[in-house]
Amino acid sequence: MTTTTDVEMSIDKQKKDIEILRKKLMDWSLSIGPNCSFDFSIEPTIVGKVKHCSYSDLNEITNFKNPEVIQKTISGRLFQGTIVEGSEKRSVIVKTWDFHLPMRDALQCLTTFCDEIELFTNERVNMHPNLVKLYRYCCDTRLALVFDEEFTRLVLSDMTWWVERMKVATQLADLYSCLHENNIALDRLIPANIMIDKEFNIKVFDFGFVTNTFNVDDSILDDVASSVVCDEKFRLQIMPQASISLFLCRKLGKILEFQL
Length: 260
What we know:
about 260 residues; alpha+beta; Phosphorylase Kinase, domain 1; Transferase(Phosphotransferase), domain 1; 6-stranded mixed beta sheet; two-stranded antiparallel sheet; globular; Plant_StressResp_Kinase; nucleotide-binding; protein kinase activity; transferase
């Protein structure tokens, strides 16, 4: 039987794994010249239960050709992929972080990459049915996450039916509530980055910013608040618990593009 101590120990180990990965990436970014190639050459680190995959492994999952490109994301692109485990073969999603030399925005890219791994390996929230499931991560030549999900090719921005949008709103509210209870906040969650299956169940796979450690009694740092387009969402971090429901309704109304 899993005890609270077991869970806390697992979460503590996962945080240490993330910090090791974050330090390796930051050290690499500080050691390169303005015209170096993206040969990360970082020793693989297991984060929680999620393993690192090499660039050659990533190429076997998806070859990064145009037919496999699903859409652009805030960080880069989304690709269709396939994984094979024994006799089992299934579709997956590969999300890349695309940035170019000279590395003007590299530190921001590396930070968001690590922040998303931390979110998707957080055992308190990563089993939520409306978050995609992280399968592998890659920091060998490319920064990429592999999600164990089949892309349905239907996203929220394609959907116009009122009843189904209300079902989506309920699921988003539940996801936001779960994240808030665990001191996690997301930014720039837009309709094009919310995948929907045939039963109108959602999977969130992309967002502009995630903070995994906010305190509801803390105010937001000025540099963070000024760097986001929709800083209104960050009021979630400092709002009293009783105000959350009304805030969510208004925010979800904007995401779903109907007036509340």
